[in-house]
Design brief:
With 500 residues, the chain is an alpha+beta fold. The chain is built from 20 helices and 18 strands. Helix 5 packs across helix 8, helix 16 packs across helix 18 and helix 17 crosses helix 20. About 7% of the residues have low confidence.
Length: 500
């Protein structure tokens, strides 16, 4: 703030927040044919602290902000991207640098749909000809704000084609190559700065970086490291290369390389008396050498294509987000302590470290002696509680096996959930009923195949799954959910029998 004040004092320029400045900017843009609010009235008394001023502009209707427009997945993005490129290009050719580029300052008309307007010019700067570095800054701000939405590369090409109406797209990409490269470096530095100052979660930052790499389609770009380290690793690896240090952690129990094609290596380590699990992911270039099975590659590509708008299931950043969500919602799961990602899918390295849950036993081992357990009822209730809490947090596990649930061996019966590599994520409380029904049916089918659950035990599970309702109310309100559970349970049971 002090830097801006001194810069204004010694430069001799008027404050950019002056109303008369915004009036002149609006008049200039209106004359240039840019879609902005039409200035109607302006007035000002004496300058300085004793003066006051006002500005009246015409309201633009019917419009919606770009933030709300692009948040709707069914919105026509093609016409909107072209309209934004046309409006911003006209503003820059008029010599105006908007300086506050985010989705809230751009309006899209509902009718006609292919038109956009720009608002809020109290911090704008005016030039005879806009310098290249200010155009680069504006583009970087726009691109950074758009990373929150799942745009395709073609959407950005439409923006550039509308921004430069006198050029073909090929000519634009060749002429603006250096500007686009500098813009990418600027965005990567901003991502690092936001992660460093805890303004952006590391998992979201790596998602933005992956989308940025997908837009530019340049595998040889400089790798950017994104780290989120917590104690004791934040102190232990301070000033060191975390990606090299993670490989030096002692191996107590190793899981080797996963045969499923994901290129994972998992091992258990002990540091300062605490047990941790470490998972590293091989880059895609190495996965192609280690796993040459083309059928597995085709299946994984099809799964990514079909899951448009979602993060890949085997992405470590996705698992980190899930663990943070579970920790926030109070679900018993491994505590995340370290996460790191560098580069893209082809040349990058990714790792995640979680705290081990001890003393525990796998649920599959406990089910073998279920009928002899003295606290079987309480254990079933604890199992229903953790599954219900996980679903209310908007997470579907998608890998319901006895090995993915841990039972604490001492004290009060407690159950924890692990291994979220294939899980799916929704907003809190927004998990679809169909997915909940499938998950509950799969869990009850596994229990029924091991110990043959009675009707009373199933009701005990439901009472723990819905802790805020009585059992009678649950059976009445969730009638459709329970009918879907029974239908899926019969289907899963028939599939298991046919496989045997």
């Amino acid at each position: 703030m002090l830097r801006a004040v001194f810069r204004r004092l010694f430069s001799g320029k008027k404050s950019a927040r002056a109303v008369d400045h915004e009036w002149r900017v609006l008049c200039r843009l209106s004359e240039a044919g840019v879609a902005v609010p039409r200035p109607v009235a302006f007035g000002a008394t004496a300058a300085g602290r004793d003066g006051w001023s006002f500005l009246i502009i015409e309201e633009l209707t019917p419009t919606v902000t770009a933030e709300k427009f692009f948040a709707d997945k069914n919105a026509p993005k093609r016409a909107a991207c072209a309209a934004l490129g046309k409006a911003i290009g006209a503003m820059h050719r008029a010599g105006v640098y908007q300086r506050d580029s985010h989705g809230g300052n751009y309006l899209l008309f509902r009718e006609p749909a292919a038109d956009a307007a720009i608002i809020d010019f109290h911090t704008a700067r005016v030039f005879r000809k806009l310098p290249l570095r200010y155009r680069e800054k504006e583009w970087a701000e726009l691109l950074f704000s758009s990373l929150a939405y799942d745009f395709f590369t073609r959407d950005y090409w439409r923006f550039l084609r509308a921004y430069f109406p006198d050029r073909s797209l090929r000519e634009t990409l060749i002429a603006e190559r250096e500007t686009l490269t500098a813009m990418r470096r600027r965005i990567e530095k901003r991502l690092l700065r936001k992660v460093k100052h805890r303004q952006l979660p590391a998992a979201v930052a790596i998602l933005y970086q992956q989308r940025l790499a997908k837009i530019f389609r340049k595998n040889g770009a400089p790798a950017v490291a994104i780290l989120d380290l917590r104690e004791p690793f934040s102190t232990l690896w301070r000033g060191k290369d975390a990606f090299a240090e993670v490989e030096k952690l002692p191996v107590e129990i190793t899981g080797g390389v996963d045969d499923g094609g994901s290129g994972r290596r998992i091992w258990r380590t002990v540091w300062q008396g605490e047990a941790y699990y470490v998972k590293t992911i091989l880059p895609l270039a190495w996965r192609q050498k280690v796993f040459p099975n083309w059928r597995d590659k085709v299946w994984r590509c099809c799964r990514r294509i079909l899951r448009l708008g979602e993060v890949a299931a085997f992405d470590v950043a996705h698992e980190w987000r899930l663990l943070l969500r579970l920790q926030e919602c109070g679900v018993l799961a491994p505590a995340p302590v370290a996460f790191g990602a560098r580069g893209d899918d082809y040349s990058g390295r990714v790792f995640i470290i979680t705290k081990a849950l001890t003393p525990t036993a796998q649920l599959a081992e406990v089910l073998e002696r279920w009928r002899t357990l003295p606290q079987a009822r309480k254990l079933l209730a604890a199992f229903g509680e953790v599954v219900g809490a996980m679903h209310r947090a908007g997470i579907r596990h998608c890998d319901n096996g006895g090995d993915d649930f841990l039972v604490f061996t001492g004290g009060k019966p407690r159950v924890a959930v692990i291994d979220f590599g294939d899980s799916r994520l929704w907003k809190i409380g927004k998990m679809p009923r169909r997915c909940r029904a499938k998950e509950i049916a799969a869990l009850l089918t596994i229990f029924g195949g091991k110990i043959a659950l009675t009707r009373r035990e199933e009701l005990r599970f439901l009472r723990a799954y819905f802790p805020d309702r009585s059992l009678r109310e649950t059976l009445t309100v969730e009638r459709e959910l329970l009918a879907a559970v029974r239908r899926y349970a019969v289907e899963f049971d028939s599939q298991i029998r046919s496989a045997q």
